[in-house]
Here is the input.
Amino acid sequence: MEIDVRFSAMEEARRVEDLMSTLQPFDERVRLAIKGGINRAPLERTAGVVKLFHHAREIAARLGFELEERAVGGASDGNFAAALNVPVLDGLGVDGDGAHAAHEHILVKDIAPRTALLAGLVATL
Here is the structure.
């Protein structure tokens, strides 16, 4: 069995990892071998992340759209940078639906504003 668990804080990740490592079968006919561990640290909402988000939201407002803050529990390469205590904003791409599904799509009307947002961030950081 493979278990995929998502965390919002490293403290919680460690707690669950410790809990998983102490599991024991209740049936003597069963063996339990636990392998693996955390492969991505959580993308925590640190003070640096909040500051960076507010900066991005100001740029978006100047471009005429509202940038919303969300936590969705996914995982990305941004988690690796966040583990190094680097402020990370994930999900700044074009809006759409159906990530990794057959009906996945983007909203073409969002391409230019999101590109401008990213350019504004790069130019001002």
About this structure: The mean pLDDT is 92. The first strand starts at residue 96 and ends at 97.
